[in-house]
Amino acid sequence: MKKVYTIGRYFRKKFGEDVYKVPLSIQGFTCPNIDGTVAKGGCTFCLNESFSPNLAKPSKKFYLNPQSGSNPLLEKQLEQVRIQYAATSRRLASKYGVKKFIAYFQSFTNTYAPLDTLKALYEEALRQPGCIGLSIGTRSDSVTEEILDYLKELSKEKEIWVEYGIQSIYDETLEAINRGHDSANVKEWIQKTRERGLKVCGHVIFGLPNESEAMMLDTVKASIGWGIDSIKIHPLYVVKNTALAVDYLKGKFEPIDEKTYIKLLVESIKLLPPSISVQRVTAGIEDDSLLAPKWCRNKHMQMKHIREALKRAGYIY
């Protein structure tokens, strides 16, 4: 039996002990696909206030973008880094005995801000007890040479990852989900990131509108060819108050079924070279906001079925 090269195994091999990611969600960050810079409304599967009036914030709500002349939220953001990091790292240390952590800037587009704000937030995270590095979730159309050069300097002493939403290599799919950029843009910035010696994690979604099984596997193959260091794969699921929910309720979108998803996931893992780690193999949501598919509601059962399928294929997850 082969062991799937998970990110946990990568960290243990490199640092000699467990390393856990601490997710951070910082106020004031948004996305160029939400604020109208590259598109309006966000990706069709994304729950955001531009689509749902129920989520609307006060009109004077401040959002960052790379051209923001000042950041009135900075002190509050720095406090959020400290509070969120402390709470989660203490919980993980108590439960698992872990001592090293990666600060994971997770929600929205975490390079979509002036560089001085990014430096302040990233460096505040790195000052926290046990923090050995960063993982920064972003879009390929929201990074710059200057940001990558800065991260390259940080990487001389810290573990630095950039997480890009690849989703699909097919431009017709990216257009259908209102992504706001094409696959050539993703390829370009993944390669620029790798040229600086930074670690890249690529996010891939199975079950996007009108994609065949072959197309989904093509995205995995292309991502490998672009030089990613790690991969996250998850199914497309439908939540309330999204553009995708409208299509689903009108019968215009059929979510991927669990059997097909797991089959494709196993095939994808078979494609991965030994150097590429796996950070995620599924996703879902366990509340009433989930419309479909229902199998995404119970992550425990998802993982049970995935482990069983991988075992039949000769892998231990």
Explain briefly what this protein structure is.
The model is unreliable at 50-59 (pLDDT under 50). The longest helix is centred in the N-terminal third of the chain and has 23 residues, at 74-96. 38% of the residues lie in helices and 18% in strands.
Folded structure, characterized:
The chain has helices spanning 7-15, 74-96, 115-126, 145-154, 171-176, 183-195, 213-226, 243-249, 258-271, 299-312, and strands at residues 2-3, 19-24, 100-105, 131-138, 159-167, 199-206, 230-235, 238-239, 277-280, 290-292, 315-316. The protein is α/β, with parallel strands linked by helices and 317 residues long. It has a single domain (2-316), classed as Aldolase class I (TIM Barrel). The strands form 3 sheets. The chain has a 7-stranded parallel sheet, sandwiched between helices. Strands 1-11 form a two-stranded parallel ribbon. A two-stranded antiparallel ribbon has the order 8-10. Helix 4 (145-154) links the parallel strand 4 (131-138) and strand 5. Helix 2 (74-96) runs parallel beside helix 3 (115-126), helix 7 (213-226) packs parallel to helix 9 and helix 9 packs across helix 10 (299-312). It starts with a strand and ends with a strand.
What is CATH's topology name? TIM Barrel
Q: What count of helical segments does DSSP give?
A: 10
Q: How large a portion of the residues is in β-strands, by DSSP E? A: 15-25%
Q: What is the typical, i.e. mean, pLDDT?
A: 94
Q: Which structural class fits the helix and strand makeup?
A: alpha/beta
Radius of gyration: 19 Å
Please tell me the total number of domains.
1
Run of helices and strands: EHEHEHEHEHHEHEEHHEEHE
CATH class: Alpha Beta
Helix content: 25-40%
Determine the oligomeric state from the structure: single chain
Number of strands: 11
Overall geometry:
globular
Which CATH architecture is right? Alpha-Beta Barrel
Give the name of the CATH superfamily: Aldolase class I
Biggest sheet record = 7 strands, parallel
| Unreliable spans | 50-59
